């Protein structure tokens, strides 16, 4: 059993922290910007509630953060009330937020000066993956802290891999989102084409999902796309945030991302239609509704 701090109890963090308590049996202290959410978590899972990230992280073997964006990560990590204010030699900070690689490197450097291990560890699998404890975790950092943190992360992960030095986890998550963006657009066009051709799309999906066109998105989203249902899943707002990180990184490494840039603009159109919280599969809406 480890003493754990979990900072950020959104749709992902809430169940992830829960798995640390129920599956891992760890001593978990939680912090959330909205105290009511932290109080609800404690009433459901037990553990303790802290009023600041610093208070949550004090004495923790591992402190996890799972918040919204770079600014949110900075707010819970740095400063007098941040987690790094009380973490010291031998302790570990793991950030599960999808954020920039530059921020990961910055936190790594400041943590290393204090003898704190840092792992940037964005996740893939969405809310369902978090609730079912089957997330894919992409990690950057040093081997020692990773080896210590992995058995704890495994409470909510089906795969947890160290991919390189600090920032490698975030860069891998960017690759993940780039691949998804193009895939969902292609899936949307295929489903719309099939519907307009008068095909039985349930049968179409069943057969092509078993071939080279098959994907997680097809298995989990194609049917709801054909039913024009999007009120669930990974929100368009979040995807645009992630694609913005990818496009900013492109300016640094010179990669060409023509499809990603185009799909990002399609998502902007979905937002303009009121679909900010729709699932990313709502790209289909642009093809089926004038």
Can you put this structure into words, describing what you see?
The protein is an alpha/beta fold and about 290 residues long. The chain has two domains: about 5-165, Rossmann fold; about 170-290, N-(1-d-carboxylethyl)-l-norvaline Dehydrogenase, domain 2. About 50% of the residues lie in helices and about 15% in strands. The protein is built from 13 helices and nine strands. The chain has helices at about 15-20, 35-45, 55, 70-75, 100-115, 125-130, 145-155, 170-195, 200-210, 215-225, 235-255, 260-270, 285-290, and strands at about 5, 25-30, 50, 60-65, 90-95, 115-120, 125, 135-140, 155-160. The strands form two sheets. Strands 3-2-1-4-5-6 form a six-stranded parallel β-sheet, sandwiched between helices. It has a three-stranded mixed β-sheet with strand order 7-8-9. α2 (about 35-45) links the parallel β2 and β3 (about 50). The longest helix is centred in the middle third of the chain and has 29 residues, at about 170-195. The protein is globular. The termini are far apart.
